[in-house]
Amino acid sequence: MQSYPNHWEADVVLTDGGTAHLRPITPDDADLLREFHSRLSPETIYYRFFAPYPKLSDRDVKRFTTVDYEDRVALVATISDSMVSVVRYDKVAPEEAEVAFVVEDGHQGRGLASVLLEHIGAAARERGVRRFIADVLPENRRMINVFREAGYTAQQTFDEGVIRLTLDLQPTDDSTEVMRAREQRAESRSIARLLFPESVAVIGASRTAHTIGQTALRNLLGGEFQGPVYPVHPEAKAVVGVRAYPSVLDIPDQIDLAVVAVRADTVVDVVEQCAEKGVHGLIVVSSGFGEVGPEGRARQDELVRTARAAGMRVVGPNCLGIANSDPTVSLNATLSPDLPPQGPIGFFSQSGALGRAILQRVAERGMGLSTFVSAGNRADVSGNDLMQYWQEDPATKVVLQYLESLGNPRKFTRLARRLAKQKPVVAVRSGGSARTTPTGHAAGGLALPDYAVTSLFQQAGVVRVDDITQMFDAAQVFAYQPLPEGPRVGIIGNSDSLELLVKDAAVRQGLKPHDPVNLGPQATADDFDTAIRAAQAAEDVHSIVVVFVPALHPIGDDVARVLRARSLDSDKPIVTTYLARQGLPEELRHVGDQGQTLHGSVPSYPSPEDAVRAVAHATRYAQWRNRKPGRHPELPDIDRARARATIGRALKKAAPTDDDVAWFGGERRYDEETAISSEDARDLLACYGIAAYPDIRVTSAEEAVVAAGELGYPAVVKADAPDLRVRAGGTFVRADLRTPEDVRSAYLSLEDRFGGEAELVVQRMAAPGVPTVVRAGDNQSFGSVVSFGLADVTAELLDDRSFRLAPLTDMDAADLIHAVRAAPLLFGLPAGATSLAEQPNVEALEELLIRVSRLVEAFPEIGYVDLDPVLVNATGAHVLGARMWLREAPEVRPDVGPRRLRGVTF
What we know:
Elements: E1 10-13, E2 19-24, H1 30-38, H2 42-49, H3 58-65, E3 72-79, E4 82-93, E5 96-103, H4 112-126, E6 131-136, H5 141-148, E7 153-159, E8 162-168, H6 173-195, E9 200-203, H7 212-222, E10 229-232, E11 238-239, E12 242-243, E13 257-260, H8 267-277, E14 281-284, H9 294-309, E15 313-315, E16 321-324, E17 331-334, E18 342-349, H10 355-364, E19 369-374, H11 383-392, E20 398-403, H12 409-420, E21 425-429, H13 450-459, E22 462-465, H14 468-480, E23 488-493, H15 496-508, E24 512-513, E25 517-518, H16 525-537, E26 543-548, H17 556-568, E27 574-578, H18 608-626, H19 640-654, H20 678-686, E28 695-698, H21 701-711, E29 715-720, H22 724-727, E30 733-737, H23 740-754, E31 759-764, E32 770-779, E33 783-790, H24 793-797, E34 801-805, H25 810-818, H26 842-858, E35 862-873, E36 876-879, E37 882-886
């Protein structure tokens, strides 16, 4: 019977792009272990056991396969139900264990040992192990390098011909960076295996015209794929003139990629045949999976399990397919007959239905693609995998993503931040402010306000646009023009009305336009050339917008040649509204030897507003990329161990259920009755150096007087109820109470006002300042998120809040404060102040935000933190109200711990 945590099982990508399944060993693995050992070479056996060991005895097998998952743990890696690697640890002291590996000879060099070390190390830490020791023969250089290159703090000794390595298992920046780098290389190669196949089989190729199977086959052939294409049909000898085979197993040659277009209920059988054949990857265009309900979802999970177990990645199901314009491949494994030419844009789309229309629009605009992937239900391959690939792909200069949901939001933001530092990432999210996840896709609906989604994308460096048209508008600048070095825009044209539209649009977009240079309706191409050269030479011009309306005599081609020529040697982006043409008209294109549109082509837009918006996207992105990233400051007074103990104690008291705590930013409200006690909330905040003012709940005037005496004067009596500030118009507090009679009178006044609707509390009064609200928690779409706003009725009603991803850098914290419209109230003198010494201490507020972000990022059990109000005055940021809701932590926190593929049910 299983007695190990479910999250100890995982699918992983290996360094060559294949996959393997990791799981704990069980007594049922006895035969697999014998077969595995029998395939090991004498050298590998000697390296593992330091002696010849040609056969395992029954006693050995029982000892190796029977573990307690506590002091003795072993993990195995399997491919196609065959054991290919084993790692194990045995405790030798309370915090120390011996670790040993063995990898089958034919699978050595694929990164199995490295990924197994990550997973066995994580399991060991859960069981209280802090150090691994490993004895390795000096000639076993490959295994020594696995330990040395893991990034952990290591020590090495040599005794009696054996090297002893000691590894501190505490994760370090180096070990995390090593893990992320290996993850990136492995996932990139797994996508490269899909995009660069040497042979393709179409399983389900049909003799009937316009069917999915025949369409896929014709598109591969019509796209001039550079390798052999094999139709698979159970009866036909040929399909569209190409020899067909009854099954993939009957094809005599190696198959790298299989396009699967059969009924959903037969797909798994086909996948099993592909596994037996040794196919590297699958594109499942068939529908009838997660998008049709629970039965389809179960079928989808089985598809992914079967494929990954055999080392294959899956695109789809219910997808349009993939394409690679590289002339050495010319792969059109999609259901779209016409692909754009080769170009610098990588495109990922979840939607198969929209994929064909998207490809058509790209072609109409004269743009080119490097690669295209429509992932459909994203059962396996997702946009995150493509970002890993595009980061290293020299053919891709711009990344476009059409997103309907985020399968692993934490990983998305991490990868997007890293990729956007090198290449622009433009994303359009379908559904506007919709809060649901498309059927068949993994959980991850975007449940924050729409403006919050935009700000979080911007923080991660992603250019978020509203629709596909705007996506292509932005892509034209990113792909074919340099980035602007600043916000100042030069405007040149022969129509004063269009020029004024450009200037107004630039102001609305936050740019700084110069006064337009109006060349007049009779302007010649030479006039445009002179004006553009002058703008290019001006240091205070960072981008150029040219508007052109043809005069009575046709000079359009001459102006187009000028625009194209000036763009070729320009270090400033040039865009135009040219004859109301959209895209990259032939007249404005710079074309390479192979017919592809190259850098230097001038993007044209049908309206000035569209042109300016595209320039604004490029400007904001350039500013984000050039700014300093900020730092994560060292914070004193953080006690994670005490925080963990406090959470454990509070969870036992509260015993929350899934219904008690909603996602931060979700639709449901938090139930006040399920919040942890104010004492536990204050204790948990204190573990991260956040001091919350204590308060005492009272039920009578005399209790209020006693409480004020305990806490000290001047005192405050206030009503405590959710949303009271908005509903009560701010009259729920009686402050500056300096005598017992003041307290007694205040209590009676509030009791009479609320009639028992709200509990009353007594608190020591803080010096006057600016009241603010800090909220944080775990959001289903982005992970840990922090929000900030002023504790003001108007701010609440206008939803004047800002959002950032946790953990915050010092620059993130400053941005979070400045982003609210009411922020100027924090940077001036408060009413009655007479000197700068009384100005609110914004630096203390920034530190508070950073501390809160570290808290919620460290503990997934924290569903929601509500600090309301936080009073910011000259002496600091004072937490006067604190509520906190906990939830049972997820067994596996996405993007935390050893690398793994997005999970399915094992």
